[in-house]
């Protein structure tokens, strides 16, 4: 446990140091060393340590939020662009793509991104372990249900050459790797909760958590530390012969109750499930909403296929309005597991977009090329590029040069290195986190600012661990650990997929990456308060804390099968996302019409209205954390921009 693990580029104490400076000069040595422009010495995807919202990517924005960043002494760069895009995530990159298609490839575009890498939440983690390249997603996981994507999201996939059939054909055998080895989902009951560490793995054919009837058998439950009553309640819950737990109500009354009752309360108060058995279900809302069963409507549980709803007579799950809204299939409509999971998640899509926008930055062009592609980050911001991507640049102010109704240019000020700098744009698209927009653009109407502030993004962590081998997983017969009351609630071997020359480990003797998740929720508080408290706690956690807890947890899970963290862990990358998932409306806390209709009273609609030369994108503008939402909002923002410009040439004169 005392052996050091690779964690390059970790800057401990940065937030405290900057916070203590307050409104000190940006040119001071302390500030210069911690701004986003400081950490550019190594290849961003290969950096380990604290990543995601890494040190230097957000501290200046916090000074702006607190009113401690004077916007003066700004160095005008003498640059004017047809379009300035704030945010280099999938929404910002897609906006640049759409604008070029409509205006022409000679359009001058600048993308400003606060992180030292492009892609926003779609980040790639790379490790070189014993001569083998190991890749995993550091954020956005997959292209989920692409057949349900909106027109514009599908167009981006097509334009970038993403071919689902070719991907699936290449992974027909690979995706069955773990099941062919007999690996299953194991449930780890920790000693802090259950008095003794205990791993329980379902017997028989491998099952996933969605196949609850196959997993929760009498034999399985007898090996758990649950009380006899809790075991009996679990067997009743998964029995095909279910009572109507809401007998006497009409279907409409049942749905209204389920929409306004938490999943936890429904299970405890209506299904009468023993509280011990809630251990299996408390985290049910995390993957979609960054909150657990206490803050997720029971109606969402029905839609997601959890047991206990079959005999309520609710009918078939409707396709409904939300089937055509971004992310609508996730938690509110029928789910489809027909997803595309590239080894680095949707970083492959971001990399394809950058390859198209700045072709001299890489030789890679196809989805297969992206498996092992490298990018020359020094070529992203060359003056000769029609599209320039300027990393490590935190935008702190956007203002019209004159009256917003008549201005022909906007001034965009950003922090880069040890200076405040400014550029001009004939149009601006804010494809950044929407809650920061009122701070960078105080000239917005008060009602719009309030709407932009409404959504509170969900905090979460994806910890990527590079292992020299995964023999302990094979020895235990486990590919994924569910451990909801431990530091990380899930520990899993990364999904078995190949991409071009990037080949997934076929043998347990080969290096592999682990995907560990931690959702910073606080059960019992209202949802938005859970996000706020969780974010504050996350920002206070050092990399050393994550390293210690990760090594300790893996030792407890895998140690009995011969795992030694000092020997077997090659590197750790903590993808910290204090502002993670976009806020989605929730009928426990928000007006029901915001959740189940397209009403224009939703804060995301009020907040995303164009103002002068400014349009607003990002998945926040759809109140959905999904990739198709980010692309849809990019297209809308570009459409608004084009409508302001002179046709038929789509360029302001």
Automatic annotation (TrEMBL):
- Pfam families per the UniProt record, alphabetical: NAD_binding_8 (PF13450)
Look up the signal peptide feature and give its range.
1-32
Give the keywords, sorted: Signal
Protein name as it appears in the record:
NAD(P)/FAD-dependent oxidoreductase
């Amino acid at each position: 446990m005392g052996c050091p693990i690779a964690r390059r580029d970790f800057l401990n104490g940065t937030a405290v140091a900057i916070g203590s400076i307050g409104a000190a000069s940006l040119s001071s040595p302390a500030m210069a060393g911690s701004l986003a422009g400081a950490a550019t010495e190594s290849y961003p995807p290969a950096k380990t340590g604290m990543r995601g919202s890494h040190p230097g990517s957000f501290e200046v924005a916090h000074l702006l939020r607190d009113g401690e960043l004077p916007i003066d002494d700004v160095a005008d760069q003498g640059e004017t662009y047809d379009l300035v895009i704030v945010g280099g995530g999938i929404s910002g990159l897609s906006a640049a793509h759409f604008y070029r298609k409509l205006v022409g490839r000679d359009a001058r575009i600048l993308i400003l991104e606060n992180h030292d890498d492009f892609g926003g939440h779609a980040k790639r983690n790379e490790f070189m372990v014993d001569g083998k390249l190991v890749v995993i997603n550091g954020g956005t996981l997959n292209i989920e249900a692409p057949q349900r994507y909106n027109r514009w999201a599908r167009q981006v996939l097509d334009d970038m050459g993403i071919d689902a059939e070719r991907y699936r054909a290449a992974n027909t055998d690979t995706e069955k790797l773990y099941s062919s080895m007999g690996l299953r989902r194991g449930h780890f009951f920790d000693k802090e909760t259950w008095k003794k560490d205990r791993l329980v793995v379902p017997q028989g054919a491998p099952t996933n958590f969605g196949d609850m009837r196959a997993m929760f058998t009498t034999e399985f439950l007898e090996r758990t530390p649950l009380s006899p009553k809790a075991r009996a309640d679990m067997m009743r819950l998964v029995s095909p012969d279910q009572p109507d737990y809401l007998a006497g109500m009409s279907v409409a009354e049942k749905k209204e109750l389920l929409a306004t009752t938490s999943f936890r309360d429904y299970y405890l108060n209506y299904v009468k499930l023993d509280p011990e058995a809630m251990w299996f279900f408390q985290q049910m809302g995390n993957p979609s909403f960054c909150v657990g069963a206490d803050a997720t409507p029971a109606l969402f549980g029905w839609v997601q296929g959890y047991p206990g709803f079959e005999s309520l007579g609710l009918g078939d799950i409707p396709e409904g309005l939300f089937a055509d809204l971004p992310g609508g299939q996730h938690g509110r409509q029928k789910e489809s597991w027909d997803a595309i999971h590239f080894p680095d998640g949707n970083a492959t899509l971001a990399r394809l977009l950058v390859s198209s926008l700045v072709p001299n930055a890489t030789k890679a062009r196809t989805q297969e090329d992206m498996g092992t592609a490298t990018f020359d980050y020094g070529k992203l911001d060359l003056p000769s590029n029609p599209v320039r991507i300027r990393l490590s640049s935190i935008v702190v102010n956007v203002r019209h040069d004159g009256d917003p109704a008549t201005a022909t240019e906007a001034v965009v000020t950003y922090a880069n290195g040890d200076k405040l700098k400014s550029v001009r744009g004939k149009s601006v698209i804010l494809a950044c986190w929407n809650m920061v927009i009122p701070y960078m653009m105080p000239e917005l109407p008060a009602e719009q600012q309030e709407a932009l502030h409404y959504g509170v993004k969900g905090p979460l962590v994806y910890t990527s661990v590079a292992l020299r081998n995964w023999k302990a997983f094979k020895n235990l017969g486990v590919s994924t650990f569910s451990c909801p009351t431990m530091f990380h609630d899930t520990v899993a071997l990364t999904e078995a997929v190949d991409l071009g020359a990037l080949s997934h480990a076929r043998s347990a003797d080969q290096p592999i990456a682990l995907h560990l998740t931690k959702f910073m929720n606080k059960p019992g508080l209202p949802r938005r308060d859970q996000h706020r408290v969780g974010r504050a706690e996350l920002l206070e956690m050092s990399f050393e804390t994550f390293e210690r807890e990760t090594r300790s947890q893996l030792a407890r899970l895998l140690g009995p099968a011969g795992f030694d963290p000092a020997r077997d862990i090659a590197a750790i990358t903590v993808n910290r996302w204090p502002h993670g998932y976009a806020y989605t409306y929730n009928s426990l806390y928000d007006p029901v019409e915001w959740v189940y209709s397209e009403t224009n009273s939703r804060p995301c609609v009020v907040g995303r209205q164009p103002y002068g030369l400014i349009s607003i994108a990002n998945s926040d503008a759809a109140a959905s954390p999904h990739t198709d939402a980010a692309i849809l909002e990019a297209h809308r923002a570009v459409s608004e921009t084009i409508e302001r410009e002179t046709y038929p040439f789509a360029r302001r004169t």
